[in-house]
Amino acid sequence: MLHTINKSPFESSTLQDCIRFISKDDVVLLFEDGVYAAHPGSNKSALTEEILKNNKVYALQADLKARGIDALIEGVETADYDMFVDLVEEHTVQAWL
Amino acid sequence: MAEEHKLMLIIRKAPHGSIYVHEAIEVMFIMATFDMKLSIVFLDDGVFALKPGQDTSELGIKGFSASLGALAFWDVTDVYVDEQSLKDRNICTDEVISYGEDEDTDEKLFPTPLSTDELKKMMQDQDSVLSF
User: Fold this and answer.
1) What letter does residue B102 receive in the DSSP assignment?
2) Nearest-CA distance A96 → chain B (Å)
3) How many CB atoms lie within 10 A of CB A78?
4) For chain B, N or C: smaller number of CB within 10 Å?
5) Using one digit for the tens of pLDDT, what is the confidence trace for A43-93?
6) Is A88 helix (H, G, I), strand (E, B) or coil?
7) Does A6 touch chain B (CB under 8 A)?
8) 3-state secondary structure of A2
9) Within 10 Å of residue B26's Cβ, how many Cβ atoms?
10) Does ipTM come in above 0.95?
11) Angle CA(A13)–CA(A17)–CA(A21) in degrees, nearest 5?
12) What is the pTM of this model?
């Protein structure tokens, strides 16, 4: 399953809420304001770090660029739009809005 | 003569994910044309609007770094940022964009970081508060 997160972890609990339902082999994609969860050293970074212990986390490149985020939590990978499409094709999508 | 009306505009949303910050900046420039004591505060996710190097070209939307960089030109110089919000998001106080240059010295101006107590006091002192 692909879990997509588009809200800032400081404003919404979607990232925290989704953690409870992540299974082995699931993937998390951060996009729109969700990419703020990929920024290291904040008081919400632990959420992303927890997911990274067992699962892959991607952040959409265009959204990182738009928000001036150039440093990422170690282990977070970037994805472009083509890769976003591939991920959606490969998985059932759970969009945490 | 009556004292100048004190208006505080608070930006609390992250940029680009919604229209709030764009709208707040529009209102900011409208209010700057009136004779009032206008102050701008970046709070909570609003501090992300101050991150340097934002390039929205791939999203196909207009950014607003240029607008924020011209605030001083419109005589908006009471610009503040909440220290705690920066700290929670691991953004240094010297890692934020400038809102223009000083009229006389041409020196770059940066939002003044304020503590919760200072902000609380400033809020109490306003005639009106607009929050986005």
Assistant:
1) -
2) 15
3) 17
4) N
5) 999 999 999 999 999 999 999 999 999 999 999 999 999 999 999 999 999
6) helix
7) yes
8) strand
9) 13
10) no
11) 160
12) 0.91
